[in-house]
Design goal:
517 residues; alpha/beta; TIM Barrel; Immunoglobulin-like; 5-stranded antiparallel sheet; 17% strand; binds alpha-D-glucopyranose; binds calcium ion
Length: 517
């Protein structure tokens, strides 16, 4: 286990929307380099960069055309190597995005694979044995080339599924998981990982990590076995490299697959979803962090605790403020509510991730035109708002040339203003990150115990190591008496908090950390 993960606080960067340095309207790697000092000042010491590889961008880069080449719009490979170097100089680690489940249909492997003549790549993807033979229960394409077969899709139509074999084989054309072609695909992925790790990357966020083997069982045991093998490779060759999975099943991903971290994704009504985004289109929003106070931390804990307990010895659950697939938290929460939500995310066990712009409460831009396969996700992918100058300081290009329009509302938040305001969301986020770095008890592997959590009641009180933390997201002041408070005093507060002996009074939208006197 890489020890640096204990105190890691990640910052996710969507490269096309972060900072444009050559005025073409699209963010670039040089832009990330120029903003490393900003990230360091915020307190983040690790990055996840969304795909920056050569791609036709039918899925914003998750359709990779060349895994070993930086997309021209972001720069050249040397810029990536320089980025690793400059980040390391500032104590910042860099994870790239590995997309192992599929490529673009313009990838050289796929171009060879669709040829009717048998070649090295014929079985690199999942093909049936006839153009009129479909893939049962899965999307597929047929009639797209002269090869007499249909190929399986892993996501959009331009993303053919790579072949890692089928655990349960019901058709003659299904490869076994230990077939030479399935092993060759796995080895090709390891080769790509070694390429970037040798050039200075510190690991990978793994896209759709659970999607490799088809007809895998309930435990995804065959897919997990592949990742175990990858983990063994890392342990032997790159022991400091880290892997975080897009899986959202830590028992499978961490215990089974050997991932160091697994994302707790925004899935309908799971524990994470009840915290920030528990809304229905016409229904009532019962998110725990809403000031209306209709939320219930027990809904989160019932889902989270078994997962946490089962995996805490082996790895970390990663919570994020948002990601590039999820509506931004500012969609439903005010800056006041966000401060309390971030206080929670940044003091929980596991490794937290902040999505670019969430530190200033950037809005989810509803109903904007889809870009590069984003659809509803596009609203969370707009340019970073650096200051109040043209294009909010993102780019010097004409506004129509930007990758996506910036939030042009008059009160759109920006970094420069919030850095000068000690009450801003930015300043609170920064102080919370600093707090986490200061106390080993708040970091990834320190114990987590619930002290007070009652259905439909506030506050929520929990322990990290020897520290006690209390949260009241609601709009009403709460009082509570707990023996555990004996001998404690507050060392960090948001909002109104007072502790007299064992009696806590915690104001509306408040948070506190207590330490033994
Ligand atoms: C993951 C990515 C998403 C992408 C999909 C297909 O869910 O986060 O953005 O579209 O995989 O690669
Ligand atoms: Ca650019």
């Amino acid at each position: 286990m890489p020890t640096w993960l204990k105190d890691a606080v990640f910052y996710e960067i969507y490269p096309q929307s972060f900072y444009d340095t050559n005025g073409d309207g699209i963010g670039d790697l040089e832009g990330i380099i120029q903003k490393l000092d900003y990230i360091k000042e915020l307190g983040c010491n690790a990055l996840w960069i969304n795909p920056m590889y050569d791609s036709p961008f039918m899925d914003a880069g998750y359709d990779v055309r060349d895994y070993k080449k930086v997309a021209a719009r972001y720069g050249i490979n040397e810029d990536a190597y320089r980025l690793f170097d400059e980040a390391h100089k500032r104590g910042i680690k860099v994870l790239l995005d590995l997309v192992p489940g599929h490529t673009s249909d313009e990838h050289a492997w796929f171009k060879a694979s669709k040829e009717p003549e048998e070649n090295e790549y014929s079985s690199r993807y999942v093909w049936t044995n006839g153009a009129f033979v479909g893939v049962k229960d899965h999307p597929y394409m047929a009639g797209m080339s002269d090869r007499n077969g249909a190929y399986m899709l892993n996501f959009f139509a331009s993303q053919p599924a790579l072949n890692y074999g089928w655990l349960e084989r019901t058709e003659s054309w299904m490869s076994a998981v230990d077939s030479p072609e399935a092993i060759a695909t796995k080895e090709a992925m390891k080769d790509i990982m070694r390429f970037w790790l040798d050039h200075g990357a510190d690991g990978f966020r793994v896209d759709m990590a659970d999607s490799l083997v088809k007809n895998d069982d309930n435990k995804k045991s065959a897919t997990a076995k592949i990742w175990r093998d990858v983990r063994n490779m890392l342990d032997q060759e790159y022991p400091e490299a880290a892997l975080v999975s897009e899986w959202s099943n830590p028992e499978q991903a961490i215990n089974g697959g050997g991932f160091h971290m697994d994302f707790y994704l925004d899935h309908w009504h799971n524990g994470y979803n009840t915290l920030l985004r528990d809304y229905e289109t016409d229904g009532e929003d019962n998110s725990f962090f809403l000031k209306s106070g209709k939320g219930d931390i027990c809904r989160f804990l019932n889902d989270y605790m078994p997962k946490y307990k089962a995996t805490k010895k082996n790895g970390y659950i990663s919570m994020f403020t948002c990601n590039h697939d999820t509506p931004r938290p500012a969609n439903t929460l005010t800056p006041e509510e966000l401060k309390i939500a971030y206080a929670f995310i940044l003091t929980m066990p596991g490794v937290p991730f902040i999505y670019y712009g969430d530190e200033i409460g950037m809005r989810y831009m509803k109903d904007i035109r889809s870009k590069e396969g984003g659809f509803h996700r596009t609203g969370s992918r707009t340019p970073m708002q650096w200051d109040n100058s043209a294009n909010k300081g993102f780019s010097t290009a004409e506004a129509q040339k930007l990758y996506l329009a910036v939030d042009s509302s008059e009160d759109a938040p920006n970094v420069a203003d919030q850095m000068n305001d000690e009450n801003s969301l930015y300043s609170t986020t920064k102080s919370l990150v600093a707090l986490r770095h200061m106390h080993a008890d708040l970091q990834a592997d320190a114990d987590f115990n619930v002290i007070y959590a009652e259905q439909e009641k506030m506050p929520f009180v929990y322990k990290r190591g020897k520290l006690i933390l209390a949260i009241n997201p609601s709009g009403l002041e709460e009082t509570i008496s707990l023996d555990e408070f004996q001998g404690y005093q507050p060392i960090y507060t948001i909002g109104k908090v007072s502790l007299e002996d064992t009696n806590l009074t915690i104001g509306s939208s408040a948070f506190a950390v207590f330490q033994i006197k």
